[in-house]
Amino acid sequence: MTPESTVRAIEWVARAEAAYLGLALGDALGATVEFLTPREIRSQYGVHRELRGGGWLRLKPGQVTDDTTMSLALGAAILADGGTVQPLSCAHAFDGWMRAKPIDIGNTVRRNLITFRGSGDPCAPPSENDAGNGAAMRVLPVALGTLGREEAAVRGAVRAQAHVTHNNASSDAASEFLALAVQDFVRGEPLRQVYRRRLIPLLDARPEFRYKGRRRENPSGWIVESLQAVLQALMETDGFEACLVNVTNRGGDADTTGAIAGMLAGAFYGADAIPARWLRALDPTVREACRSQARALVAVAATAAIA
Ligand code: MG
Ligand code: MG
Questions:
Q1: What is the Å distance from ligand 1's center to 256 Cα?
Q2: Biggest distance spanned by C-alpha atoms of the chain
């Protein structure tokens, strides 16, 4: 390795860790206000900006939900398979996660995992209705484990994990966009370039995701509304904390918009932008799991790229 490539590898790992921590922090921040309206959030908290727990799940401060724990389960399966995304391994990982009785679980995830138990087929049937954000919210370990691979291979890996529970064109388009944008940010590419290379083509191909115009408040679990809220928050703000505060104070599916915004903003702004008080408040077991899994996924991606 040349000194330049060593420095680059260190920067990539730091941004990958920041993306994973961002996912968990956005999840923990948003879970407090999940299903509240912006008006309810204002009257209870003013601006909600602390990892205080509570919410409808009665969380401890810094506790995360399915968005983070499903990602960690998926990442463990990818690592066990040497950096490849095997649908059957993903399905078993999610099924094992569900058997451990997570504190929350999406309806589409539950329904299609129960179908998988009966059929053994790790690909859910295509459905117009399965356009929830459940596959997109857990896409980060795929992005990190396939860093450096051809775009078509990244897209294929994204769909392989997504289709275990969500076999839907909107979900696929959003999940593929998120994985590729995170990879660009991890490589240090500027927002302008990611906008031109990833976002414009997404909006051309899938106009339902167009996000300019009316402020998206109360985003539902529909991936279209979730991603619109995330994109507005990312484009309206100029820092990691501001982006996550912006998106979670919109209420609705706030843990998931927080998680998705967190993975993008973490990769984009990097580790130094993450507030120390949030890192201290985050569940320490989750914090270490995110860091070590991010490192392991980037390492396995680098090994695969050399081989
Ligand atoms: Mg959740
Ligand atoms: Mg949610």
A1: 6
A2: 56
CA 108 to each of CA 93, 139, 166, 222: distance values in angstroms, whole numbers, following the listed order: 16, 16, 7, 11
What's the Cα-to-Cα distance from 37 to each of 45, 186, 211, 263, 278, rounded to whole Å?
12, 33, 20, 23, 23
Q: Which domain holds residue 66?
A: 3-306
Residue 14: CATH number of its domain: 1.10.4080.10
Helices then strands, each counted (H, E), the chain: 15, 0
Q: Which ligand is nearest to the CA of 222?
A: 2
Number of domains within the chain: 1
Q: What is the pLDDT of residues 68-125, one digit of tens each?
A: 999 999 999 999 999 999 999 999 999 999 999 999 999 999 999 999 999 999 999 9
101: left (phi over 0), alpha (psi -120 to 50) or beta: left
**CA 298 to ligand 1 center in whole angstroms:** 25
| Neighbouring residues of the ion ligand 2, judged by CB less than 5 Å | 253, 255-256
Helix (H) or strand (E) holding 73: helix 66-80
Q: Is the dihedral of CA 65, 68, 69, 71 positive or negative?
A: positive
Q: Distance, CA 192 to ligand 1 centroid (Å)?
A: 30
Ligand 2 centroid, distance to 66 Cα (angstroms) = 8
Helices (H), 81-133: 87-99, 107-119
> Taking the complete model, does pTM exceed 0.90, yes or no?
yes
- In angstroms, what is the span from residue 69 Cα to ligand 1's centroid? 9
Distant-in-sequence contacts of 202-206, Cβ < 8 A, 24+ apart: 202/173, 202/174, 202/177, 205/173, 206/169, 206/170, 206/173
Contact in structure between 51 and 61 (CB atoms under 8 Å): yes
Question: Ligand 2 centre and the CA of 217: distance in Å?
Answer: 15
Distance CA 297, CA 237 (A): 29
